[in-house]
Design brief:
Shape: globular
Distance between the termini: 32 Å
Radius of gyration: 45 Å
Helix content: 25-40%
Structural class: alpha+beta
Length: 390
């Protein structure tokens, strides 16, 4: 892995109760009791009449008083009832108001949280961000289920847009890949944002036709390679008019999934070449380890090539310089999947990658980006070698 300098001018840095009252009227205006007088005017008859009148009058008076008391009692009872009912209604209303206010507050907080997460995810180009968390790659399948066809691979720490969930599966979209992954291998919400902040890289995109990469931060220093327009480079440091970049690690802020069609090959390629490239690309996303040769636990650039070719009975040394002396040198324009591309400073070789067709290579790039796929001309190739004879 090498850090080199380029002119900053050629880069673009990335970094919604109504109550009815019942009452009883007291009956008034009762007829006056009148004594019915016979022709006889005897005192006895008068006393009898008076007695009758007095008795009737008392009974009527008692009745009236009783009626008034009943009426008053009913009215008082109704008044008490209404008072209690009204108080209860006020209490219930206040309780309902408290519950409603509490629910609205919770809804507002949830909306604010979702908005904040969406804004944070937007910094990485997503709305509902998911981050892959697995040892190696996560298989992206066409439909939910471990028997479904694999349509792509999502490297560790790669970002994706979460579309929805289906049981223990999550539908995602990343790069050109859309499908389902096991939910247990995804970070979401605040955890995804935190991980994205941790693993993101500052990148620069080449905005000129050809960008010269030099050994030092001045135009008199040696040009070690050239970068084409649109290439993305990891930024290590920014100085006056110059940007220090990692020429062996070309990455976006968050890696994306790769389609299976991205590793297809041209016509006329032998079965062994197709098989070798398919085998090599399955380790994309695994770690870079200096001096390593393990395709799963970690390998450096030449260790990766050594182990891939060993699987097909081809023995290679553990050194990019030494590997460059194996096989037959060919023109880059004649390269087929399975041929080796070598890079370096001038004629000094320090990196090797396997050509996979379509103008791309797979290689153990750097400790930060691991095994990945890049454009074959992300650096100017120093040499191209063919070690497969069929």
């Amino acid at each position: 892995m090498e850090a080199k300098w380029v002119k900053a001018a050629g880069l673009l840095a990335a970094g919604s109760l109504i109550f009815s009252v019942a009452y009883i009227d007291e009956k008034s205006g009762s007829k006056d009791g009148r004594a019915v007088m016979a022709e006889s005017t005897s005192l006895q008859e008068n006393e009898v009449s008076a007695g009758v009148s007095s008795t009737l009058g008392g009974q009527i008076g008692n009745y009236a008083m009783t009626d008034a008391k009943v009426t008053s009692g009913v009215t008082d009872a109704m008044s008490d009832y209404l008072s209690v009912t009204a108080a209860d209604m006020v209490s219930v209303s206040e309780s309902d108001r408290d519950v409603t206010a509490s629910g609205q507050e919770e809804e507002t907080q949830e909306e604010d949280k979702e908005k904040a997460l969406a804004e944070a995810a937007g910094e990485f180009g997503y709305t509902n961000l998911g981050i892959a968390q697995a040892d190696g790659n996560i298989n992206v399948r066409e439909v939910p289920g471990t028997e479904a066809e694999i349509v792509g691979k999502l490297p560790n720490n790669a970002g994706c847009e979460i579309i929805g969930t289906d049981g223990e599966w999550t539908q995602i979209e990343s790069g050109k890949v859309k499908g389902y992954v096991k939910s247990e291998y995804l970070l979401t919400g605040e955890a995804a944002i935190a991980k994205a902040q941790e693993v993101k890289q500052t990148v620069a995109t080449v905005t000129t036709t050809t960008l010269y990469v030099r050994d030092e931060a001045n135009t008199d220093s040696h040009v070690i390679t050239m970068m084409p327009e649109g290439e993305e480079l990891e930024v290590l440091e920014v100085l006056d008019g110059w940007v220090k970049i990692n020429v062996d690690s070309i990455a976006t802020e968050l890696p994306k999934a790769q389609t299976m069609t991205e590793v297809r090959y041209g016509q006329g390629v032998s079965d062994v070449r197709v098989s070798l490239v398919s085998y090599a690309t399955q380790f994309v996303g695994n770690p870079y380890v200096w001096g390593g040769t393990s395709l799963t636990r970690g390998a450096d650039c030449s260790g990766f090539v050594l182990s891939v070719f060993a699987n097909y009975g081809i023995s290679l040394p553990h050194s990019s310089k030494a590997q460059a002396n194996c096989g037959t040198k060919i023109a880059a324009s004649d390269a087929q999947p399975g041929d080796l591309f070598f890079y370096g400073n001038g004629s000094s070789i320090n990196h090797v990658a396997i050509y996979i067709g379509g103008g791309r290579v797979v290689h153990a790039s750097s400790p930060k980006s691991g095994i990945k796929i890049s454009g074959a001309y992300y650096r100017t190739p120093v040499k191209v070698v063919r070690v497969i004879n069929n």
